[in-house]
């Protein structure tokens, strides 16, 4: 089944070229089914690139998904045309009285900024608090995961001395957890962050199910018992060249970044990188949509209630 997106969204052409079934609004309006309503709060600067990456992963599902894009505020963007934002993105005021099956909050390039210094921190807190009453399951990605842990568990910001960048091996835990259905015992996933997610720290200070960890990168995947809050500390949505572009950007800004580990063949940036995490990324999003959203959400979103959710798989 397809994802439903606006007719003129740039991602539609990219996804069609990749043979991904995209249903435009004009066609979807004639179908008599109840699609999942998924909201994406896009905090990344290059919004067109990021929305395409997430839509690609959401498309690998038998469910029809109605996507809406949300921006954090109305400040001008340096990396995304104003026309694109005005045409395809909504302000929070336009959706706050509605319920959604799922919410994805993307990462943001704020790894070295304290929460209280993030210009939209209070607004983000308001959206995350709203999600408790209006969203079946929220997926926090990378920086958003640290922000979510601050809001839900009051955990302070924990920052690494050096940026964690590269593709890392992970081991799964709780192998029968629905989010891990179909996962191999070990898998690869990219990271690009300064945040520190130690398994020991999260075990001591939260009641989260820690589902996947790396000896180097720490916790990769964790979930609340009721699966209404899922934390992904890496970037399963990244394209093959995303880490490369970040590395070149940081070099250009004089930051002297380390070469992303286990990314370039022979660790040589002159060699084109090979994506080794696509299958895991698609499976993770399919599992989230199925077990955390579709299996949990009420058929009538107007009947949204905390009583709909259980801690059972």
Kindly describe this structure.
This protein has one domain (3-159, 198-238, 282-307): Class I glutamine amidotransferase (GATase) domain (Rossmann fold), CATH 3.40.50. The chain is α/β, with parallel strands linked by helices and 313 residues long. α1 (10-17) packs across α3 (47-58). β11 (218-223) and β12 (229-232) form a beta hairpin. It has nine helices and twelve strands. The longest helix has 17 residues, at 278-294. Strands 1, 2, 3, 4, 5, 6, 7, 8, 9, 10, 11 and 12 form a twelve-stranded mixed beta sheet that branches. It is an enzyme of class 2 (transferase). Pathway: Amino-acid biosynthesis; L-methionine biosynthesis via de novo pathway; O-succinyl-L-homoserine from L-homoserine: step 1/1. The record marks 192 as: Important for substrate specificity. This is Homoserine O-succinyltransferase. It is found in: Cytoplasm.
């Amino acid at each position: 089944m397809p994802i439903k997106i606006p007719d003129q969204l740039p991602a539609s052409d990219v996804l069609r070229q990749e043979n991904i079934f995209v249903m435009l609004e004009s066609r979807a309006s004639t179908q008599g089914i109840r699609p999942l309503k998924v909201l994406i709060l896009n905090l990344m600067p290059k919004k067109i690139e990021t929305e395409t990456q997430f839509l690609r992963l959401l498309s690998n599902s038998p469910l029809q998904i109605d996507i809406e894009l949300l921006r954090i505020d109305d400040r001008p963007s340096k990396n995304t045309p104003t026309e694109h934002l005005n045409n395809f993105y909504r302000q929070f005021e336009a959706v706050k009285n509605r319920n959604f099956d799922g919410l994805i909050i993307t990462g943001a390039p704020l790894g070295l900024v304290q929460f209280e210094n993030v210009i939209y921190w209070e607004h983000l807190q308001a959206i995350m608090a709203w999600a408790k009453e209006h969203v079946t399951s929220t997926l926090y990605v990378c920086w958003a995961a640290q922000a979510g842990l601050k809001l839900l568990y009051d955990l302070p910001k924990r920052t690494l001395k050096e940026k964690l960048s590269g593709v890392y091996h992970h081991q799964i835990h709780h192998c029968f957890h629905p989010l891990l259905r179909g996962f191999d015992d070990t898998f690869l996933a990219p990271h690009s962050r300064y945040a520190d997610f130690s398994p020991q720290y999260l075990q001591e200070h939260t009641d989260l199910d820690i589902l996947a960890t790396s000896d180097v990168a720490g916790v990769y995947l964790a979930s609340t018992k009721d699966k209404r809050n899922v934390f992904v500390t890496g970037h399963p949505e990244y394209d093959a060249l995303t880490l490369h572009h970040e590395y070149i950007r940081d070099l250009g800004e004089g930051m002297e970044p380390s070469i992303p580990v286990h990314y370039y063949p022979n660790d040589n940036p002159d060699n084109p990188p090979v994506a080794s995490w696509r299958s895991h990324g698609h499976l993770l999003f399919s599992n989230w949509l199925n077990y955390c959203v579709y299996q949990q959400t009420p058929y009538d979103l107007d009947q949204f209630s905390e009583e709909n959710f259980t801690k059972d798989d």
